[in-house]
Amino acid sequence: MFVILSIYFMQLKDLKKPDWQKKEKRVGRGGKRGTYSGRGNKGQKARSGGNIAPGFEGQDTTLVSRSPKINGFSSPKLKNMLVDLTLLEKHFQAGETVDMKALVAKKLAKQNKTSRTKKRAKVKILFAGTISKALTIKDCLVSEKAKKAILAAGGTVIEPAKKVQKVGEKKGEKKEEK
């Protein structure tokens, strides 16, 4: 069994200078790259320093300007989930507590998502229809008319706790402890 090996012997013609030793081509000084040096005749591009901005299309409106814009504004806040009194009348028994967990369990509100501002979406109960059951509304926003209707039916409304700003403090500023 014979193994044929191809042996390559380096020759002088195969040697090349390293990149740092190579000379830069001098354009426009006679020889193969003389006179116009591949720039053509006259015009802005033929001149030294005759740069044209990328995307420039002469007098035409540029492609970027012609393309449609994405207008508008999207708020980082999540919208309140709205629930009517008729839905509460239909899905809850007298004496039950209505809060976010109960509304999600009965599929009247979606799972509480967090927005870009790290705030949670809230549920707001609106006055639409009538209510005759005594329900306890907890940690939900309630409109004035809906609140009156719930209280008239014998229910209670426990509103979410609001952050109280101390006198002398500016919004977003924390008091330093000594």
Could you describe the 3D structure shown?
The strands form 2 sheets. Strands 1-3-5 form a 3-stranded parallel sheet. The chain has a 3-stranded parallel sheet with strand order 2-4-6. Helix content is 15%, strand content 10%. It has helices at residues 63-66, 85-91, 100-105, 144-152, and strands spanning 81-84, 97-98, 123-126, 136-138, 141-142, 156-158. It is elongated. The protein is low in regular secondary structure. The chain has a domain at 81-158: Ribosomal Protein L15, Chain: K, domain 2.
Overall mean pLDDT: 82
Number of helices: 4
- CATH topology label of the domain at 81-158: Ribosomal Protein L15, Chain: K, domain 2
Q: Got a strand count?
A: 6
Instruction: Describe the largest sheet.
Output: 3 strands, parallel
The quaternary state of the protein chains shown equals single chain
CATH hierarchy class name of the domain at 81-158: Alpha Beta
Helical content band: 10-25%
- Structural shape: elongated
The helix-strand sequence is HEHEHEEEHE
Radius of gyration, CA atoms, in whole angstroms: 39 Å
Widest β-sheet, arrangement of strands: 1-3-5
Low-confidence stretches: none
Beginning-to-end CA distance, first to last residue: 92 Å
The percentage of residues in β strands lies in 5-15%
Secondary structure class reads little secondary structure
Q: In the CATH hierarchy, what is the architecture of the domain at 81-158 at level 2?
A: Ribosomal Protein L15, Chain: K, domain 2
